[in-house]
Amino acid sequence: MSNNWRKLTSCNTMMASLDGIRALSIFAVMLCHFGLTNLTLPYINKKDIFDTSRRIEYLPYYLSSLSVDSFLLLGGALRTYNVLEKLERKKFFYFKDVIQRYLRKFKYFLFALIFPYLYFYANRLTPALAVTIAFYATIFPLLGSGPTWFQDVGVQKEVCQENWPLNLLYVNNIIDPDRMCIVQTWYLGADMQLYLLAPLIVYPIWMWPSAGKYIIPVMLALSSLLTAYIIFETDTTVLFVSTFEDDKLASYFKWIHYFTPSRLFSYLAGVTLGKILSSIKNGNAEKTSKEVFYSSSILSTLALSVILYAVLQYISPDYKYSLGQSISLGVLIKIVVTFCIAWIIFVCETGHGGRTNRFLSCRPLQFISKLSFCMFLTHYIVINHLNGSTRQPEYFCFIRQTYVMIGHCVYTIFLSISLHLLVEAPSRALTKNIMTK
């Protein structure tokens, strides 16, 4: 525990802006899930929720569902950066790298085969996940009661007792996604699947640098077309808008939110960012002029403003669903949001971030970033306990919900610290050699 606490409170100076992006992203994820589950509570003025939720102050809630794309962007960037560094040093081995992703130290793999109980100590990602699953399946149902306790907690107990192997194999977003243990862990499955795919993309870029200039744009274009095709075939919405038909909302979660190919563009954008950052660190990239910085910053701001306006129209009470508009928004919103986040990281890592870089690199955000994996696993415990133990209707108010959300974040941070101290969770995927360099 003392060793884990030292790591948790240590200061990172390598690509520290990524810590800030990750910390802000986990808060956005919590905001999205808090708002989503809030719709199930018995409010006296429940109709007002649907009326007021279309106002501009609720815009961050609708955009918070894109925070997962931010995580995938960071994952793709770090994965590419690591793979390229190992390829340059002739130390990249695919299967060893995959096992190290699943297991903390490769040498523990043989011990894990002989002594399965050592698995929980050798593992990289799975210990915190396994502990959380065990908590859901055994202890959590005993910690409260209420009119909807079984709906919020009891059902998860049954699902986790039945489908926990799918989580530990990271295929829970593919196999039986309608009965998923710890619903937010679909992201871990998608991230692991894209992690396995990344070297097959990075290696040709490294082996044939001249061809890589064409490979990346082509793959980004194909992934955008794939997103458009998925929306066209499923005729679904691209944002969770509570007043849309139930079948469209169900289709959204199955084919847009959980489905790994729908998230491919964000990960490929991260691959592109990782390749650029690697070239900059190795001195192989051309120096970017101030004109390019200023023009790209202005362009990204204008593009983001247009997307925000389009989202406001999309969630308007007067909006009538259109498949063509859903396809356009679904493709453009991923392109613009991922480009803006990638551009912020690029500006910070090239020394032009200024106050933005200092904010993203500050110690509190680094602390939250290292807790982000545990916060991701545990924040639904706080949400489910709050919802399941509610015994009387309340009055919905934006200010009150803000206070409840702050309290929810504080409880989640304390719960995450406890989990992190007991079972060390992964924070940053940079290798020791790169950190030393």
TrEMBL record:
Keywords, comma-separated and alphabetical: Membrane, Transmembrane, Transmembrane helix
Residue ranges crossing the lipid bilayer per the database entry: 21-41, 61-84, 105-122, 128-150, 214-232, 292-315, 327-346, 367-383, 403-423
Protein name per UniProt: Acyltransferase 3 domain-containing protein
Residue ranges occupied by any Acyltransferase domain in the UniProt entry: 16-393
Domain of life, per lineage: Eukaryota
Keyword Transmembrane: yes
Molecular function terms, GO-annotated: acyltransferase activity, transferring groups other than amino-acyl groups
UniProt lineage: Eukaryota, Metazoa, Ecdysozoa, Arthropoda, Hexapoda
